[in-house]
Model the fold of this input.
Amino acid sequence: MEQDRKAGKVIVVTSGKGGVGKTTSAAAIGAALAQRGHKTVVIDFDVGLRNLDMIMGVERRVVFDFINVIQGDAKLSQALIRDKRIETLSVLPTSQTRDKDALTKEGVESVLSELRESFDYIICDSPAGIERGAQLAMHFADEAVVVTNPEVSSVRDSDRVLGLLQAKTDRAEKGEAVKAQVLLTRHDQARIDTGEMMTVEDVLEILAVPLLGIVPESKAVLRASNLGMPVVLDEPSAASRAYEAAAARLDGEDLEVRLESDRPRGFMQRLFGRTA
Amino acid sequence: MRFGFPRWTRKQDPSARAAKERLQVLLAHERAGGPGPDVFPELQRDILAVIKRHMKIDDDAVDIQMERGEGQSSLEINIELPAARG
Ligand SMILES: Nc1ncnc2c1ncn2[C@@H]1O[C@H](COP(=O)(O)OP(=O)(O)O)[C@@H](O)[C@H]1O
Ligand SMILES: [Mg+2]
Done:
């Protein structure tokens, strides 16, 4: 449990590969932590490709952004957008027009340390890749959620990201570890059953880090992004339950990882017993 | 089991319509050139300068909020004045 209430925790949501569900996960985990009563901010590190604002439904309200704050053109408090649905949730959007080099290590550090003073959780939505932008997003992280799909290129990229987390971050430079966990997303049991897709066990065996959760492939994710709602704020679904459980685990709850399903427990499941 | 109907008779998921509307509003603003990246910092500096000519306020006393809408957008500017003495 966090003892020092004034030192918020920085958690990076990263993956290497693009399109695996980082932004979806950052928004959902951020909203779930906020729903648990923690002051939470989600930051978009994907400079030039602003997307988090759309996924969180605040795109019409962006005035100042992360880059304006780093460049001293706006105060952090002016750039933070308070969510209208959950009081404890804020978004720090990024710039759509500046290029990636507008982010500096010193700038990121000062914004994050200011945020640590007033937020319990600071969730960093990383850009894809393993270059500068992704490295800056993870640099000051205390913990990492490595979003992985059960698919070869995603697992491979996750492995590289895990290496960077333990070698190139601020904590690594100080001889401390970044606590990293895998969030398996777009999990498709039907394709695993046919042998097309690797199993959870396969992925964990390769990456050798703890499992934070399994998020099934779910229509609820597309629906929520259409509506501009983090999936946990929309109607209950397998994906929302999976993200709520992942957030609870990040928050220190000792919950068993379950495989959620949108389908009612049908007779196939009754025949073959429970999964996970 | 549901029986298949031709694609065109199927109702579109209402959430897709919401997505389209949100995108139309946003993209209309973006394509119109919208306020450029420096508009808000400059606007803020100018407002501060004007107010400061008349009264003493803090550098972070200006709060700018915006709501981009379909027909119109609104810009809300709040200026926090120092508490009256006495
Ligand atoms: N669990 C899921 N089920 C179905 N679609 C998903 C799921 N997770 C993500 N997606 C979809 O995958 C695409 C990429 O997701 P996104 O979160 O933007 O990934 P990233 O930030 O890693 O690029 C989006 O279209 C999103 O709706
Ligand atoms: Mg993204």
Q: What stands out?
A: The pocket of adenosine-5'-diphosphate (ligand 1) is lined by residues A 15, 18-24, 128, 185-186, 215, 217-218, 221-222, 225, 239 (CB under 6 Å). Residues 1-5 of chain A have pLDDT under 50 and may be disordered. Strands of chain A lie at 9-14, 40-44, 81-82, 89-92, 121-125, 143-148, 179-187, 211-216. Chain A touches chain B at residues 54, 57, 59-64, 68, 73-75, 77-78, 95-98, 222-223, 225-228 (CB under 8 Å).
